[in-house]
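hey all, quick one before standup. I had two proteins in the batch that finished overnight and I want to keep them in one place so we stop losing track of which output belongs to which input. First protein below, input sequence then structure tokens straight from the run.
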Amino acid sequence: LYCVEHPAAGYKKIFETVEELNEPISAKITGIIPSWLSGSLLRMGPGLFEVGDEPFYHMFDGQALMHKFDLKNSQVTYYRKFIRTDAYVRAMTENRVVITEFGTAAYPDPCKNIFSRFFTYFRGIEVTDNCLVNIYPIGEDFYAVTETTYITKIDPDSLETLKKVDLSKYLSVNGVTAHPHADADGTIYNIGNCFGKNMSLAYNIIKIPPAQTDKSDPIEKSQVVVQLPSSERLKPSYVHSFGMTDKYFVFVEQPVKINLLKFLSAWRIRGTTYMDCFESNDTMGTLFHLATKDPAVYLSTHKFRTSAFNLFHHINTYEEEGFIIVDLCTWKGHDFVYNYLYLANLRGEWEEVKKAAMRAPQPEVRRYVLPLDIHREEQGKNLVALSYTTATAVLESDGTIWLEPEVLFSGPRQAFEFPQINYSQYGGKKYSYAYGLGLNHFIPDRIVKLSVQTKETWVWQEEDCYPSEPLFVPTPGATEEDGGVLLSIVVKPGAERPGFLLVLDATNLMELARAEVNTIIPVTLHGMYKRRA
């Protein structure tokens, strides 16, 4: 893949504050939107990057803005609304940052007297509910989420905020990821850190049942199904996603750590943020953990290790012939990638952006293969017996298994990230294709399809265009894995209509249609496509 340059730095526009809309606006369509495509693309991302004269500093700090492109009878409208989280409402009321975000500290209100400040101090840090990362269904409801235990129920039609839910009321977790897995019946699985009694640490996999026949809230029936141990006592690894097959859970314990002592004392130290609580462990490498799904049991006998990498997104995981295949978007080394996602970095001039990315960990799509049957006598020999992969797993003398990956995609400072697959039919199963957002020195500038079997790539790219994570929507009745379309929100800053919904044919990434609106759309992280009922 060739590297495109962005000297005009139009990408700065996707990190600028916008206003919400009072009503949906109609889009101008070029090309032909498939007649079967009837539903809405819902996306989450930051939309307010400062409050009064106080800026937010990190990409994950801007206040949650929900976007909706509605497709109906080949007509398209666009709508957006800020989620009325506590973080947003209080910031708007006081015209300052009130709740500490990922990389921005909130300071006590200077107008409060010493007495009320003293009480705030004892209440501890208020955990943010700024749900800018993703949106997904639980039962019949829809929730906007971040990585704290606060999730926000929203109305997917009106984009109204309905209620704030605290998952820690129902489950012993201190946070959950924004990347749950779902079974065909609507059962949801997720993973989160748990700081237990006497500082014992674990990672809990949780399960939320599907919609209940008695119309009760499935969240009330959620439970922890299995607990995985932390390799380091006071320092859990940062967890952003996990893998799931029909029979197994896969958890990758990375060398990016949360320093619990810092985290727990953070609220006493003025100006500490979540980012300040991360540190890297430069000796542990990366560990893979397995658990069975039903019954849910941690496989403590299977200890897999490999060299250090950062991991945010699992692409897919499946079992074949006694092996578990784990496909990942990795970043090499233990230096934390989020250190490079401060807005000052991303809004820099192109040469500066490139320089910063030169220092950052390098991205690589990798396939790891974990053998389920481990024979003691096969020490030093590669246990992977699958014909189609060069990934290896070797039993060491200490009983651990050392993994080496097969590289599926690699380009200097060219990441294949925000991966998506045909999840409804191939999630947790053997598959052929992944779709992703191409990051060029962290700037999103193309959409990529990757064959995980042949390593062939297809690319959609257009000058001065900044796309977002492509979501796959299968054609009704399709027989091929890639029979469907990709939907992505693209920003073209200089254009007369600078924001558009792009519809691509998923087989070859040819453009089918675009629906343009005359407003800029800031960066979006994740989202979902909701079919019309």
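OK second protein, same deal, sequence then tokens:
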Amino acid sequence: MLPTSLSPVHSFSLYSPSLFPFSPFPSSSSSSSFSSSSVSLEPSSHRLCSLRLYNNAHLRITYKSNGLKLNCSLKEPLKVMISGAPASGKGTQCELIVRKFGLVHISTGDLLRAEVSSGTEIGNKAKEFMNAGRLVPDEVVTAMVTARLSREDAKENGWLLDGYPRSFNQAQSLQSLKIIPDVYIVLDVPDEILIDRCIGRRLDPVTGRIYHLKSFPPETEEIKARLITRPDDTEEKVKSRLEIYKQNADAISTTYSHIMKKVSIDGNHPKEVVFEVIDSILSQVQKDKETKMKLGKSNQSTSVQDNWRGIPTKLNNIPHSRDIRKYFYEDVLQATQRAINDGRTRLKVEINIPELNPEMDVYRIGTLMELVRSLALSFADDGKHVKVCVQGSMGEGALAGMPLQLAGTRKILEFMDWGEYEAMGTFINIGSIGGKEVDEQDDLFILVAPQNAVGNCIIDDLRAMTDAAGDRPVILINPRLKDLPASSGIMQTMGRDKRLEYASSFENCYFFRLLYYAGTQYPIMGALRMSYPYRYELYKRVDDPSGKEKYVILSTFPEKPSTDEVNDAFEGKPRNESKKALGFWGFLSGIF
């Protein structure tokens, strides 16, 4: 067997006359079949080899007596975990997931039965505990799951791990073995619905079929007469099982909070509607993996988002520690680099934490400049010529001036330490905003907090600059481009609609905002984060029993969520349920 590394490209030629004494293309003398994932060539007169390009972008070659098979799928296999309380509909959704995405369905219950019936070493160990009426130890179950995941079908097609891990220790064992999912789906169903589903279930002892007295009654009176209630489907036992499930789910959430996707289900949603939500989540995760593959990222990262460590805590304690500031600088940098590598040219970064919010305290402008310096130096290290731009004075006469939080910014930038390699003046230069600021040697532009002021609009200068920059990236850091009232004598070359349309042409490559109760800055209730090319993630801040705080993901969104969507997620309501922006979260209307 000969392993050969290949670059993750969309198309390539694979032909060596010494290795293959034939042309690997369709001809009259060779039959061929093509699909989106494989090419099969079968010349009859040569000893040929079978080639399979696995999803980790390695080529395996084995010889066969006849036939050449080239499987060149560039899709990354999905690795999915799904969790749900008893009667949440998890089994039904697993069937739909497998049918749509072709994943290998792995259930620990099925594995145990198969191992025991096969008489394997693991099965015999499990049988000893089961016969003694004891739970099978975690290490036995984990070994069984690991062995199943190591099979070729799971590696090639991806896997769906159903209902496992069920405890914190099991989750940590999988982590230590580098068994890490791309996404952790949780089916969130209200207790009253779960209880109703369980106590209404009936088992047909003849066929083994499960019925429900309300939602899925038996077809005939004869079947109805022989139905029985399973011993664990009483209300008392269901409530006990739910409590155990919740305790375990809370413990596991700390391990997978950064990739958790919660799917809220009410009693009126048919299985097809629930699956539409899951389908959307998995399709987005698949797209994200393919995007990373195009960008040449490692396929072995510990999460979908480049080893992202989760949201840091104690963000209301200012000044922030150097570690927290560095965390955000790196988070912004990674997202911006991904967007630029993907060909995006009109970008904006919006980050609102106390240490980076000059609107709350003008002295925070120094931290914002530190973020700008971090971005500029990183791009300069890659050999790019970066121009850092700060808007100058706008208006004339009594209207001349600039926003307070930008006063002195240019001087701060000039006196900052730009490293010992004399990057400033060579690879990094400081300028203003406008078409005349664009020089031929500039590769990209970082604009510091461009904003409109009453009576003056930065849009005209900004538009002139982006026109002159052409396809070179322009990155806005914390822009404020909302339309403000004009003053007499100040004319705009664009109408209001055009200005707003232009402002919206910049897409977020990074977004982070802390969420508070209305009219307060304490306590932090949650956060909204987006890092290109991933979805918007809504988090809730919670205090764990040890007194430490953590951020638990509530929901994800393909676009920036509205106030209503944020409200509904915090209140646990389905997304399609309309709601006015009132109450504690009403203030978000003015933010989003």
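Flagging for whoever picks this up: Residues 126 and 132 are 10 Å apart (CA to CA). Residues 271-294 form the longest helix (24 residues).
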